[in-house]
Amino acid sequence: MLKTEMRNEKTKHIDKMSTAEMVKVIQEENKNAAAAIDSQLGAIGEAIDAINRRMSGGGRLFYIGCGTSGRLGVLDAAECPPTYGVPYDLVIGIIAGGDGALRKATEGSEDNREAGRRDLSAYQLTELDSVIGISVAGGAAYVLGAFDVATEAGALKIALTCNEGSPIEQVADISIHPDTGAEVVTGSTRMKAGTSHKMILNMISTAVMIKQGHVYENLMINLKPSNIKLRDRMIRIVSDITGAAYEKAEELLENNDFVIRKAVEASEKE
Prior knowledge:
The chain has helices at 19-35, 41-56, 67-84, 113-121, 141-153, 167-170, 192-211, 228-242, 246-254, 260-269; strands at 61-65, 91-95, 130-134, 156-160, 174-176, 215-216, 219-220. It is 49% helix and 10% strand. The model has no long low-confidence stretch (mean pLDDT 95). The protein has a 5-stranded parallel β-sheet with strand order 2-1-3-4-5, sandwiched between helices. The relative contact order is 0.15.
């Protein structure tokens, strides 16, 4: 039996627990989800470097998965453009069942290998692309179909699962498999397994974007003033980098198309 499908001895009687007891045991298991990533840092780092090399040559990063796994990939991909100022076709999230599955579960979609092939084939992969197949159990036919396409294109294949030795690992170039164990509610992998995968995807996309030059020190320097909060953040970033007062930083941005890099360069010339 898959570890993620086993019963958790600590929560066999969670239905009889007080609210305080419930949240305490859930939080204890949340901590275990984070701790499970420790053993996978080497593989995560290997994946980051491999993706970065390909992206530097013009490649893209794809996340593909089903259910919670697919939603986590789409979420991470959607957050890259506003955070790092990259185009929307650089990091792409694909979920089994299409965008409608983001709101309404289509559980049967994960069993369709041909759909996985079809959905990824639409992007005309090359050897410069990287594909992260996300499947907690590690055997989703949809993800395996996508990996078929990646193999044919010569793209990098990274398996993200919580069950070592699973089918997607057998065909991947790099495997990441935090052992999060049995869930608080048996089989509810949106909990610990999903938490660990969200953290890993954050690590991967953040580190790749840093390596791609979209971060200066620890500042987001490719922001766009798309709302009041981000406009204010941009002004504060320019102020921090240049040492200029808030009002002067705002003036520098206004005079340079609200582009942080241009504003900083203009400051250096003054």
